[in-house]
Structure formats: C-alpha cells, structure tokens
Amino acid sequence: DWKSEDQLSSVPVFSIESRVRRRELVAEAREHTVTCLAVTPRATEVDALQELARAANEHDSLRLIVLNPELIDMGATGLGLAARRLRDRLLNGLEPVYYLRTAPWGLVLRVYPDAWSVWIDRERYLAVKGEHEAENAANDDDAFVCIADDWQEQPTGDALADLVESFMNPEQ
Predict the structure, then answer these.
(1) DSSP state of 153
(2) Is the distance from CB of 106 to CB of 120 less than 8 angstroms?
(3) What burial class does residue 153 get, using C-beta atoms within 10 Å of its C-beta: 0-12 exposed, 13-18 middle, 19+ buried?
(4) Mind listing the pLDDT tens digit for each residue in 100-131?
(5) Rounded to an integer, what distance in angstroms lies between the CA atom of residue 5 and that of residue 137?
(6) 10 contacts: CB under 8 Å, gap ≥ 6
(7) What is the pLDDT at residue 152?
(8) For residues 86 and 92, what is the distance between their CA atoms, to the nearest angstrom?
(9) What is the C-alpha separation between 94 and 88, in angstroms, rounded?
C-alpha cells in the first residue's frame, strides 16, 4: 500500500524462498551495502536463511537481520532432536542483538553490545532480600530488579535455574 512518494516505496519485499532473488541480492551487495530483514522465518525456510547468512558472513556489505524466528514447527520438524539441530544449525551462527524472554519470576534481557542480564520481579526480590537491599538495587518505580548483568553468553539451563532458585520460594 506504499505510494510512490513514500520513503519506503523503493524497499523491495520478497520471499527468501526465491533462489534467483537471493543470488541477485548477493550480487547487489558486492556493489552496495544491502540490509536484508527476515521477518519470522519458519523451519521450512532454514536452508534459504542459511544461504543468506553464509553470504552475509562472506560479504561485509550484506547485513542480515533475523526478527523473531519460528524455527520449530511440529509439521516440518517435530519436537525432538531433529528440530533442535535444525534450529541450532542456523541460530548458533548469529549474534543476538536484542533478546527478551519473560518468565513467571522475571526476565532475561540482552541489548547489544551490553552483556546478558537477568531480572527478578520486584515483589519476589523484596520477599527474599528485604526493603533495604531493594532500595540499593533499583528505583521504587521499577517493576524488576537486576540480579546479574555480566553474562557474556545467554544464561540458560542449570546456571539460570541456580541464579533464580532463591527467589522461587521466598518462604524458605
């Protein structure tokens, strides 16, 4: 619906499934700086996305931004090891620049170039640490309190569970 006078009217929109268009994109990147935004790519598009990622790795003038990938699809990959491998095959080569995962206890956040951080719901924090420590940790208006802001890699699994464990059952 963009009109010819709109600034974005010259932005090409295409499916990454088009092998011909991907080749044109790489050729264009050899002459100009090109940014490719893949919006919610699905499991069926992993091969095409990998091809673009390889090209972006080889050509500094081609930039690839992947927004909210949906790389696990019950119909295409199932839930097992094959699905995890498919997803990891692509995502392990990308650098997360903005990441926000919410959980019942708080959230995990990354805003590049800063390190990964883990935040606890303020009420949980107060129940465990008390009012005095909470004053030093954040403003009264903040809904979350940062409990770790120096993770160089994404906190997951046992390390994340160990970090938030004391906030899960404040009565203990």
Answers:
(1) S
(2) yes
(3) exposed
(4) 999 999 999 999 999 999 999 998 888 888 76
(5) 50
(6) none
(7) 92
(8) 10
(9) 10
